[in-house]
Specification:
251 residues; alpha/beta; Alpha/beta knot; Trp Operon Repressor, Chain A; five-stranded parallel beta sheet; two-stranded antiparallel sheet; 8 helices; elongated
Length: 251
């Protein structure tokens, strides 16, 4: 199999499939850099009703996803036409919060299996004995793992070779360098009396690069100071002289 292979196991396969043929996701799939296969968990559901959930032991509201369909689904996927062990990820609000470094790590794998939780959670035996890690996309709860799975797929896809028009673009994204990206403007130079900063119209690329670095640091300090703390010196250690990359600035 060429490119990164991602399998998605979910009770709502169309929810995932319908988001795949757009934008960067479409581009990397057409280029053979990404192959996404979506699997309906109910194929491995129990009985004639294809049951995938049940009431929790110990009482309480809501339903819990049973272990059998998930274990059976994972086994079938890994024994299928593209056989082999995947890196198994459960999308869960109690998982480790997704970071840019995680996307870089996952983009370097060959095969990933995303398991979308639903209801009040997933039987703990799945978490302890089947998956390799649990990932959350933020400190909030959604109804299921389908949207988080799509967020992860999109984030990984942007880092694959050829995904972006600018091959160096992903390295300048917010968080890639431990900071937020600088603000951007485009035509017209003046809109409703609001002008573009003069420096961006100056044609002085070194001056523009320095201005962008300063703005990036300013915005990060204001909105996400934790990024600077996390990275030690962070942007404080940025180069004295900003460098130019193919006529554009980089940091």
């Amino acid at each position: 199999m060429s490119g990164l292979g991602i399998d998605v196991l979910t009770i709502f396969p169309d929810m995932v499939r319908h988001a795949l043929p757009y934008g960067i996701l479409r581009r990397v799939q057409e280029a053979g850099k990404l192959v996404v296969a979506v699997h309906d968990l109910r194929q491995w559901g129990l009985g004639s009703s294809r049951q995938v959930d049940d009431a929790p032991f110990g009482g309480g509201g809501g339903m819990v996803m049973r272990p059998e369909p998930i274990f059976d689904g994972v086994a079938a996927i890994e024994a299928g036409a593209v056989a082999g062990r995947r890196w198994r990820v459960l999308l869960s609000p109690r998982g480790r919060r997704l970071q840019h470094a995680d996307l870089n790590r996952l983009a370097g794998l060959e095969r990933i299996l995303l398991i979308c939780g639903r209801y009040e959670g997933v039987d703990e035996r799945v978490c302890e004995h089947l998956v390799d890690e649990e990932i959350s996309i933020g400190d909030y709860v959604l109804s299921g793992g389908e949207l988080p799975a799509l967020v992860l797929i999109e984030g990984v896809a942007r880092l694959l070779p050829g995904a972006l028009g600018d091959p160096l673009g992903a390295g300048r994204d917010s968080f890639a360098a431990g900071s937020l990206d600088w603000p951007a403007w485009t035509r017209p130079a003046t809109f409703k009396g609001l002008p573009v900063p003069d420096v961006l119209l100056s044609g002085d690329h070194m001056r523009i690069a320095k201005w962008r670095q300063d703005k990036s640091l300013e915005m990060t300090r204001e909105r996400r100071p934790d990024l600077l703390q996390k990275g030690g010196e962070g942007l404080e250690s940025v180069e004295k002289e900003p460098r130019l990359i193919h006529g554009r600035t980089g940091r």
